[in-house]
C-alpha cells in the first residue's frame, strides 16, 4: 500500500501549481483575512523563487459584494431568506473588483504582478476559444505574472452551481496541464469522523458518501473538493486538500509528508486533456 512519504519527492518537483482559495479565506474579519493573505503571498513568493509557476483560482467576489452592500445600506436592509440567483450575480458584479484590489495590495508587497482571468463554460465550447485561453495563461506565466481566475459570476451561474470554484479550479488545472492542484479549505483535510485520511489513490462511491457539504460562506464543502480531485486523477494531476487557516499552509504541504490530504496515483501518467474531454468530463459534474 502506498504511503504519503513516497509522493513527497514528486510533490516537491511540481513545476506548475494551481492554488484554489475559497470564499471563507477572503471574507469575515479583516484581521483574519490580512493574516491569511500575508502568509499566502509569502508562500507563493517562495514557490516562484524556486522556479515554479503558480495560478490562483479565487472565490469570494459574492462575499465581498455582499459586504460592500451592507456597508452602504446596512444589514437590516438586505432581503430576508435565501439569496436569489440575481442577487448573487449582482453581489459578484460589485465584489469582483474589490477582491482583485485586495489581492493587488498584498502581492505588490512581494513584487508579484497579477492579472485577472474571468471565464465560463462557453469559453471552452470551441477549440479556438480553448486554445486562446490556454495561450493567455501561458503568456502571462511566461511574463512572470500571476493569473487570478474566477468564474464570470455576474453573467453566469456555473460558479454558484459548481461548488465555490472547486470544479473550476480542476478545469483550470486541466487546461494548463498543472502538476498539482492545491485546495485551501477550513479543515485539516479529508476527515473520516475525527481521523484525517492522508492519501487516496482512488476515489470510490464510499469515499464520496463520507464527504460533507458546505459549512461556511461558500457553496462547496468537502464533497466538491474530493470530486475536483477525482476529475483530475485520470490525467495524473495530483490534488492536495489542506487547512488554509494553518500558518503557511502551502509551504507546509511541500515540506511535510502528511500535511493535509493528497489524492494521487503514480500509475496514472500525466497528460493534458483536450477541449472536448474537458467539456464532456469536467462539466458533467453537478452539485446537488
UniProtKB/TrEMBL annotation:
Q: Which UniProt keywords apply?
A: Amino-acid biosynthesis, ATP-binding, Cytoplasm, Kinase, Nucleotide-binding, Proline biosynthesis, Transferase
* Listed pathway(s): Amino-acid biosynthesis; L-proline biosynthesis; L-glutamate 5-semialdehyde from L-glutamate: step 1/2
Q: Where in the cell is it found?
A: Cytoplasm
Q: Which InterPro entries match?
A: AceGlu_kinase-like_sf, Asp/Glu/Uridylate_kinase, G5K_ProB, Glu/AcGlu_kinase, Glu_5kinase, Glu_5kinase/COase_Synthase, Glutamate_5-kinase_CS
Q: Which Gene3D superfamilies match?
A: Acetylglutamate kinase-like
Q: Which PROSITE patterns match?
A: GLUTAMATE_5_KINASE (PS00902)
User: EC?
Assistant: 2.7.2.11
Which superkingdom? Bacteria
Q: What class of enzyme is it?
A: transferase
Limits of the Aspartate/glutamate/uridylate kinase domain:
15-243
User: Catalysed reaction(s)?
Assistant: L-glutamate + ATP = L-glutamyl 5-phosphate + ADP
Binding positions for substrate?
59, 153, 165
Gene Ontology CC annotation, any one: cytosol
Indicate the principal place this protein occupies in or around the cell: cytoplasm
Positions bound to ATP? 20, 219-225
One GO MF term? ATP binding
Q: Which Pfam families match?
A: AA_kinase (PF00696)
Gene Ontology process terms (BP): L-proline biosynthetic process
- Identify the PANTHER family for this entry: GLUTAMATE 5-KINASE, ISOPENTENYL PHOSPHATE KINASE
What family does the entry list?
Belongs to the glutamate 5-kinase family.
This chain's function reads: Catalyzes the transfer of a phosphate group to glutamate to form L-glutamate 5-phosphate.
Q: Give the matching HAMAP family.
A: ProB (MF_00456)
NCBIfam families, alphabetized: proB
Protein name in UniProt: Glutamate 5-kinase
Q: Give the species this sequence originates from.
A: Leptospira soteropolitanensis
